[in-house]
Automatic annotation (TrEMBL):
The keyword Transmembrane does not apply. Keywords: Lyase. This is Beta-hydroxyacyl-ACP dehydratase. Belongs to the thioester dehydratase family. FabZ subfamily. InterPro entries: FabA_FabZ, HotDog_dom_sf.
Amino acid sequence: MKYDREQVMRIIPQRDPILLIDSVEELDPGNSITATFFVHPDMAIFQGHFPGNPILPGVYTVESAAQATSLLFLSLDRYSGKLPLFCGIDNVRFLRKIKPGDTITLKGSLLSENTEKAIVKSHVEVFNGDEKAALVDVTLAIR
């Protein structure tokens, strides 16, 4: 399955300026996802992080991983239309800078799902081009 930005917004609740997924290139609902985000040079965050040497803040990278995780699970009928709430992040590693004009690719996969409690966990690898830029395990409660 492939989704453009409009289709992404039909699944997850985030909107600009915090919508950090532009497209879904591959999706196996509940199992794996490959999504992309273009780091637009005009993002307001770059005015302060850092003037003259702009770098995407790590929290934005983590949020994009959470949004990929949301898409991974909200695409399942049992969670469709629900609200994904951040429960935790584990094993976060930042390996490469992400700069304005870069396109990141997020590759997420299921780590665990507790259907009774609607708690899901994924492992997301964030790539900047061919280089791994970050790793993060995301836990969401779906309400």
